[in-house]
């Protein structure tokens, strides 16, 4: 049996899930975690996206969370720079990597790197990190 959901109900649910109504009290890293990452191509936009979701906030909180290791900044979804909660980053990056974007011709043209070069890079990084897992 289908349940009817009005546009107002859908919007209210989405606003709540995105910490916009009501605005929450979560710490910076937990806001990023709740949003499953925050795009940070423009750092000030990322800070604004986080601050607008908190009842109280101050400039520099994102930088402090990065410095303290609660957040990381890395290439992630859609091949763009994102803030990720440190303990969630491995999960997201594993999912992104499973798409093997470096095998797409468009990716290779844009970055000028072949899959063979990526394999060589992976091996070099693995050796540099002395990682015992051959599947890294």
Account of the 3D structure:
The chain has 136 residues and is mainly alpha-helical. The chain folds into 2 domains: 7-99, Arc Repressor Mutant, subunit A; 100-131, no CATH class. Helix content is 51%, strand content 9%. The protein contains 7 helices and 3 strands. The chain has helices at 7-17, 28-34, 43-51, 61-67, 86-98, 105-111, 115-129; strands spanning 38-39, 71-75, 81-85. Strands 1-3-2 form a 3-stranded antiparallel β-sheet. Strand 2 (71-75) and strand 3 (81-85) form a beta hairpin. The longest helix is centred in the C-terminal third of the chain and has 15 residues, at 115-129. It is globular and about 50 Å long. It starts with 6 loop residues before the first helix and ends in a 7-residue tail after the last helix. The relative contact order is 0.10. The model has no long low-confidence stretch (mean pLDDT 91).
Categorize the overall geometry.
globular
Largest sheet: 3 strands, antiparallel
Poorly predicted regions are none
| Span of the ends, CA to CA | 45 Å
- What is the radius of gyration? 19 Å
Report the order of strands and helices.
HHEHHEEHHH
β-sheet strand percentage: 5-15%
Stated plainly, the CATH topology of the largest domain is called Arc Repressor Mutant, subunit A
Q: How many structural units, i.e. domains?
A: 2
In short:
This protein is mostly helical and 136 residues long. It contains 7 helices and 3 strands, in the order H-H-E-H-H-E-E-H-H-H.
């Amino acid at each position: 049996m289908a349940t009817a959901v009005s546009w107002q109900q859908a919007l209210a649910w989405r606003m709540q899930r995105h910490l916009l109504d009501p605005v929450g009290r979560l710490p910076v890293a937990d806001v990023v975690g709740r949003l499953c990452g925050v795009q940070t191509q423009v750092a000030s936009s990322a800070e604004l996206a986080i601050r607008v979701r908190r009842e109280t906030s101050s400039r520099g909180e994102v930088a402090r969370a990065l410095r303290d290791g609660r957040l990381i900044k890395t290439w992630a979804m859609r091949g763009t720079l994102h803030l990720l909660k440190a303990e969630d980053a491995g999960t997201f990056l594993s999912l992104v990597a499973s798409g093997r974007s470096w095998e797409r011709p468009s990716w290779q043209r844009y970055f000028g790197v072949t899959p063979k070069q990526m394999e060589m890079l992976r091996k070099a990084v693995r050796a540099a990190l002395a990682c015992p897992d051959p599947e890294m």
